[in-house]
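BUG-269 | component: ligand-complex export | severity: low

The export step for S-adenosylmethionine jobs runs without errors, but we want the raw record kept on the ticket for reference. Input record follows.
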Amino acid sequence: MDHQEHFNRNDKAWGSIAEKYESVLENTTIQSSVTLYSLTNAKDAERICEVAVGPGQASRMFVSSIMKKGASYFASDIADGMNERFTKGFQDSDLASNPKVGYEWVETEEEVDVAGQAGKELRGVDRKVFHLKANNEKLPYASEVFDCYLASLSLNLVNNHKNQISESYRVLQKGGVAGFTVLGRQEKCNYITIIPEVIESLGHILSAPKDRPHPTYLADRKKIEKDFKEAGFSSVKSYYTNKLNFERCVRPFQIYGCCTCDRGILWRP
Ligand SMILES: C[S@@+](CC[C@H](N)C(=O)[O-])C[C@H]1O[C@@H](n2cnc3c(N)ncnc32)[C@H](O)[C@@H]1O
């Protein structure tokens, strides 16, 4: 599959399940995002880039209670359906009526002027959120403009994960920090077998197509650490964390049992 084909496929496939993802799955992935916010010390970052934000539950939590005053948060996703949920979720939340929080949709026809947007004088606003459509593998930002990069549960979905890693490195300033989560060891991750089957039986597409590697192919810590080092990251750490809250997420589908999943996290101090 070529680059554009993969882009279109993910845009459509993820967009089509955005509503279900938001109502059923998102509550279970928030643990990963919160872990990343904490491990990357995102609370101290001035300019944060978070990719593949989905419907934005974690983003809203980040903006309302973690992000520091004066910071700018650039949130992106490839799927129109996800971006629509993000906008709606933001507008329906208390953040929309908070005069200190600014939200802006940014068209990405051309390169986004991160410094210009972040430096904009918005009267009374002390936390700025910029939201855009973007492919993790080719971000519409200049190099070295962020001090924090976050990607929860998307590195295993892109066409070539090395492109996403090198983009994360490129947009980070020297000394910047990146945090990623991916699905972990297959034997601990029955989520990736049971749930997609059920979701597909309900008429949605979620599982990786047959021409893609298995969703847990990045769980090999040695291999992935090597990929990060090759991209230029000076210090790479990864580890497995404990299970996600999948017991809850399977209930609507009438499947019971313990679903576990572990993830690795990497960063660049
Ligand atoms: C498993 S969800 C994770 C969403 C959110 N980070 C969370 O933890 O709930 C994966 C997200 O990645 C997005 N995505 C898939 N491929 C992408 C790509 N190439 N570039 C940007 N986003 C992508 C999907 O649209 C979807 O919102």
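Assignee comment: Attached the raw record above. The chain has one domain: 3-253.
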